[in-house]
Structures
1.
Amino acid sequence: MILVLGGTTEGRLAVSVMDEAGKPYFYSTKGTEQEVPCKHGVRISGGLDIQQMENFCREHAIRLMVDASHPFAEKLHRTIEEVARKLQLPVIRFERKYPPRTQEVIWCKDYEDAMRRIEEDGVESLLILTGVQTIARLKPYWSRHPSWARVLDRKESVRLAKQSSFPAERLLFYHPEEDEQETFKRYTLQAMLTKESGESGGFTEKVKAAKELGMSVYAVKRPVLPAYTSTVTGKHSLRKAIESLLPGFYDLRSGFTTGSCATAAAKSALWTLLSGDEYKECPIQLPDGEIVTLPVERVILQPDKATAIVIKDAGDDPDVTNGCEIGATVSFNHSGEIRFLQGEGVGRVTLPGIGLPVGDPAINPTPRQMIRHELSALYQGGLDVEIFVPKGRELALRTFNPKLGIVEGISIIGTSGVVRPFSSEAFVEAIRLEVEVCMAVGAPRLVFNSGAKSERFVKREYPDLPPQAFVHYGNFIGESLQVANELGVKKVTIGIMLGKAVKLAEGFLDTHSKKTVMNKVFLQKLALETGCGTQTVQAIEGITLARELWKVLPEKEQKHFFPLLLRKCLEHTVSLLPNGELSILLLDEDGNVPYRIINPISRKAIT
């Protein structure tokens, strides 16, 4: 069993990672108001001292602890450290991300140091943003100077402030939807006292708002934490750490994409070329900003270039490249740019339509962006980056690359940087949990989307919905709608890109490429049905990806073709949500919604 501790943003993320396993675990918070909806977690609340935590871990056979608590929860950190030492338990620290310390902030080692410096600087009006637990410690200052304290809008916070004799009329309540600067403007304030709470604690926003209003900013540095078995800063790293420290908790292991492996290889090669040192494990940034580390198999340094190789670990995903070498050779050039070269086993683009110029190496846009980000942080000049996969030619024959016009090898791909294998049952169960959370927070609409890219796009249509309203269906459109119907959701929107839309229109409710591929005969039939010309019908025969339809169809023909495509999508989905309103938004490659349809049972609208 696993014990997760902390009612923080990181605690909520940890819970979502735990639930992916579909197995029970314990989730502990100090207060009852910090509850986070979870599917498989057993909730416990109330602060535990060392003996109580030790007894709990023994009684429930805890084999791993995840410390996701606030960085300033020093007593809890010490308790976890002592219990872990006594019981020889591994501990993962789910840490926050922190912006770099800058000189625009006056850094203080503790609260006493902060009061001393504030007094010395002659501050007479202070905004306290260090939390209700610190109000009593700051009494020597606020009892003699006008001060306002912002706390959470909870009965317990009011009680603690009153217990400290803090003036009730100077309590401000935190509301996430409020603009920081507008809040600060209401009062005449010289300075703000906060603590180094990291990105998830809104530290950057607080400092920015205060500075724009001319306020001085004092910040208490975060305390030094114990030495943990492992420290992670994101969901993917947390899952990998759990897989390593507690094998078997997840039925299927996660992995990394070829894009991530190529990024780690390129960064490792450049690091060696510049410094002469080698990475044993190379840190890289994923597209969502999380930092992960990949092991480096070997590095070869030559006078004018360096080569590094990473072994692809796809986890338990049935990926043809799993266990293969992904390598990069980096050398300097005089162009001032980062240029990508086709190495052995990497494909070459021969047809338009996949988002890369004909003749270019088949290194997709996201991996290119990842590699550029890492290399430009180390070196500002021109670089040649040759990506190679020694067995790539052979492996490419087992992929769709030949059909897409990619020859001589595989593609370097990956939009998220990670591979998260799911059985279909586990994936649908995760969808069910997210829909339940959406309903629990009172969202007026549930918005299904295929992944991170389409979610970014569809959020523009519903900017006022809470984050919990947006749920990834992956490829399981049918199962997702069935879950929504079973749970009684009344308003559902599906955001869909063209590739999945053409499959759904043909009746495939599971759009995975292993289950179905684009049917050009079906598309040609739709084109004829909507009056498209012979030239358009013939052009469809030559496309390799569905998104090429945006260019193949003239604008006049699009206005008939795409509405029919959406009607076909609706025909295959409307029966799965018989008691609710179903909308389908067709997203183009720029994130626009040129066509949409709403279930005509409740509202007749096709645009």
2.
Amino acid sequence: MENLFIKKNSNYKNISKFAGSTMISRILGYFRDMVIANFFGAGFYADIFYVAYRVPNLFRRLLGEGALISAFIPIYTDYLSHKSEEEQKKFLGSVLSALAIALCAITILGIIFTPFILKIITPGFINQPEKFRLAVLLSRIMFPFFIAIGFSALFMGILCVHSIFIYSALSSCFLSISELLIMFSIVPFVAQKVAIIWLSIAVVIGGIWQALFQLIPIIKQKIKMTFCLDFKNDGLKKILILMIPAIIGSSTDQVSAFVDVIFASWLREGSISALYYSNHLMLLPLSLFGVAVSVVALPNLSKSASFENFKELKKMLRDNINIMIYFIIPSTVGLIVLANPIVKLLFERGKFDTLATAMTSSTLQFYCLGLFSYACVKIISTAFYSLKDTKTPVKIAAFCVVTNVIANFILMKPLKVGGLALATAISSTINLLLLLYSLRKRIGKLGFFKKQRISNFVKVFISSIFMGIICSVSYKFFIWNKFLAFIIPIFLGIFFYLSLTYILKVNEIKFILNRIKAKISKK
């Protein structure tokens, strides 16, 4: 019983560290978005910047943080468990060298073929030559960001296997810091066209800082890693095999977002910006809990899979889903209820007007309908990657991308940009259901529908609904002040949710309180 507590406590500790550090990064990110929205609003230059940024960022998500980490962590875990130190060194050297070649090659090709890529993802820009030319220029400037983030993803995978999470979570702060420095030092004093070019340069600088920051703990831990290319290395071969399907399988939400931009380019000006801002807001709980849980879970799940301990793997999976339920369900309700005051407080100033607020908050509400699915897909996909099965997620992902395209066609006319967000939520929910069904076929019953777990879910759901009512009522009392209309409902909602889950004896709140008590008693 004590060992179980220690293991669970360690899992919570790592998740809380990652989530806490991510919170700092996200707060900086929202402040950066506020400043960008103030200068550029949700119009011409903002649309161009976010379209241009999405091109290297899409490659980053597909080939870097998504596929690379998913393929690298299980193999590296195997090497640490079963191979000698010399073999580990050769493996890391081969991966580092192969990655450097691949990143440089893709970046050069990306810069050359940027116009072709943009014609595919933003067909609505083709008839607007000035907009298209500037988007091509900004995208080419930002493409080297992909190299920096590719290395950053590898360093993150290494650190995660060694249970070092804070540096990776904090590293994204440097992207925001770089952009903010440019926004305050140069942007106010130049024309908007020049300003948006400088902002693109800041993205590349931030990516370089992000990678270098994660080298600090690697050097401190004396993890040996030098350029030493060996295409015959078994570990490198396994990663390459796993990465091909993982490119799609681990990034369904990014592929869907990519598709959304294509459709948004045909809608009214500002639609692309509204998609970006709302998606970024939705990413707060997803990054704090969904990404944190999946990143922390993958090395542990990989260890269980490495020794074919499926009983332990399923138990860890259930525990991680329970954590997700406890945090994501109330986050979903809170974001839906308070979408308008959140967008107003963060963005409505300068060139970001009330119409932009209405578009962004509506899109955010539709996105949030799939928030639980987005988060759980990350966890369930992680289970497949730990089993070195990337084919199943890729098949399901491909089907869901098609579903998203069809739903976009159906929903964009009646719901405009909100319909694109709803289509993404629907396809992600279908993705989750198919992944659960496939995983059950692979390793047997998962145990999600036991009486105790259903009871826990119902308690969380009821608490979240009552929390939403409290938030909605308190918001109306303070609607005259956008700061109070944001902060008071949130604090009241959190307090009410925690209190009600404690009264209803939800497992997660009891464990959190036990951890707090244990920390206090140590002091």
